[in-house]
Amino acid sequence: MIEKSCDFLCIGGGGAGVTAAIKASEKGAEVILLSKDHIGYGNTRIIGGIMAYGDPNTWEDFFRDIITGGDYLNNQELCRILAKEARDATILLEQFGGAIKRDSKGKISSDVLLQVGGHTSPRSLILPSTGPGLGQGLSSGVTRMENIETLEKTIVFDLLQEDGKVGGAVAYQFSTGEIIVIKAKKILLATGGGGWLYYPHTDTSQVSTGDGFALALNAGAELIDMELVQYIPFAITHPSGVMGIVIGEPFTAGPAGILKNVHGKDILPGVSTKTRAQVSNAIIMEVEKGNGTKYGGCLLDLKANKDHPQGKFIYQAYTQGMFKSFTDLIKTAYGEKAADWEESWDVYPSAHYFMGGVRINQWGEVKGTENLFACGEVTGGVHGANRLGSVSLTELFIFGKRAGEKAVTEIDNANHSEINKTLVNSQVANLKSMIGQKGKYRPIELKRELQKAMWEKVGPAREEKRLKEGLEIFSSIEEKFKDITIPEAIKYNTDLIDALELKLMIPVARSVAISALMRKESRGSHIRLDYPERDDRSWLKNIVLKKNESGDILADTRSVELTYLHPE
Ligand SMILES: Cc1cc2nc3c(=O)[nH]c(=O)nc-3n(C[C@H](O)[C@H](O)[C@H](O)COP(=O)(O)OP(=O)(O)OC[C@H]3O[C@@H](n4cnc5c(N)ncnc54)[C@H](O)[C@@H]3O)c2cc1C
User: Fold this and answer.
1) Is 191 in the pocket of ligand 1 (CB under 6 A)?
2) Do the domain assignments include residue 556?
3) How many whole angstroms separate alpha carbon 331 and alpha carbon 342?
4) Which residues form the domain of 313?
């Protein structure tokens, strides 16, 4: 076992964690930045490459779009900060070496901004080097800072905490086989979302197992609106090797794109202007009504764009520009004619983003705990019931910066919390006892069982019966977890990694199901077949989860603070 200490421990090496780490280290903090994968990876590394730009003159329009797009469940204070400070995100992105497409005069103008579904004006910047370019920039940014120590291939499986006072974390570095105990004055969760709970029906990275949600819950934090999982509408339905991978989103349907059911009926006129939730919901409901294809999808017909003055631009982006990688995938899945838009694509939504998450204030401080911060996709509240495309990157730079800078202001006067040695020893002993455990189930089997249940019971189309069945399955997986088998290996013990992730995935799965069961309406990305309408009278509420002393997850509701904007 290795012991380390620092001022600021950042858990998660995607855009949010890196931004916070760099901002804290610029102000002199000694930082440890750790990640399950490499620094600059996570979902940040696989972005399509659009980021909402904040024109200071029109920030109120941006604010309104976020709230209406989120069906009014958003935390309006956080959204105001996001809309007002959005321009800083562009500055930060460029500081980190991220390239932005500019016009011939080097300016950000309407010539280069995209209008993405749900935004009422062109507002989305294009990042031509997409995810790898951004990831590389973030990783180089960290390398330049002398006071950031990085630990890659390292999974945090527990926070060091007592009664909500967090003092560090315990991690397993699988590249070396070391168990590392890290003491820190301030700790940040930037562990991203939980899309991988829906594998293979997801386009997210495999590190997105929702660990931060469970770590926060265990530390006494509140999670909000965990039922709100965003499904991106246009993902591949078959063959299984590429199933779930995104090949577009509403605006890429172009002005002449048509979304049809299996009988050829246009199911959503004006599809390119709609939000992700609106388009996903149209497909999901059509398939539920029995009007889907034999692969369980609907048909996206983009052919008419090829001769349309504005549609040509999207066609070019697919065949030669920033969406070329989508075309390669379409060719693999559906063949040459589909890749050239001569044939329709079979599409069904895929799990893409968690709108719900850890409840924070405007500085990223985690309510109900001490010393703990969170930023990025692991947090909840900003996007309400549906996130608008391109806003996630803006959000993670802004709230990453805020969390890093705020944590640092408190470090000078803070001491390391007293760590309860007995607790640490038992956490370490627990992990050691798992290595070489001989039981009946491989963790990966149970992980797949959980993922299947998430999709079938807690997925895009929900109803009471399915959700309850899901909860029963999660309890049975928890039972089976007591009887797992893990080989003796110390380094790169993938069964151990699966087990550590699964242990955190179970409460996350439960959190989504409990909240989905409680929200008896359909809103944004959350469809209840048994409650198909949005119900503003009863459900302008956030669902708040917290663990009680016996470890059960309790759910409660809180009215949304409609401080600035109300539904019509
Ligand atoms: C295919 C795709 C395309 C997208 N395109 C765009 C886009 O163009 N524009 C946009 O705005 N948004 C986009 N998004 C959304 C956006 O990518 C994410 O919301 C955002 O990158 C999340 O950043 P993050 O830093 O919060 O998390 P991530 O970037 O996911 O990083 C999480 C980090 O935490 C680490 N981690 C997790 N658990 C642990 C643990 N237990 N211990 C240690 N480390 C841990 C991971 O290894 C990873 O380094 C896209 C998402 C997907 C899936």
Assistant:
1) yes
2) no
3) 12
4) 231-352
